[in-house]
Amino acid sequence: MSRRRGQPYSQDMPHRVVASGDEPIRSVAERLSVSPSYVSKVRSKFRRTGDAVPGPQHNHIRPRLEPIYDDLRKRVTAEADATIAELRAWAAREYGIIVSHPVMWDALNLLGLTLKKSGCGRPSRTAPT
Length: 129
Description:
Number of helices: 6
Helix content: 40-55%
Strand content: under 5%
Number of strands: 0
Radius of gyration: 25 Å
Distance between the termini: 51 Å
Oligomer: single chain
Mean pLDDT: 86
């Protein structure tokens, strides 16, 4: 069974673990290509609740800039030529929120905002002429 780290097991995996009955944890884990900890946790949940299906994941972390999205939108609209560094400095100065370049970029992308492009750079080699 091929599975990338951080991805959930298939929906039938808990049922396969439960169906293994009293087989030793390590042999079940080896046969199903899962960790012994997973087998133990599935069996424990099945004993407690009578159901082995995993519950919903609650690992959502709210974006740090979410409280100032409206002000950020107004700021970019008013100053379309502001750089990411200037917007980061503004957020730190006005709201005490210190974020990295990628965090600010992701916030602007999420809001559908783009920054004014500079026309003074060299044209791309692949740009149509």
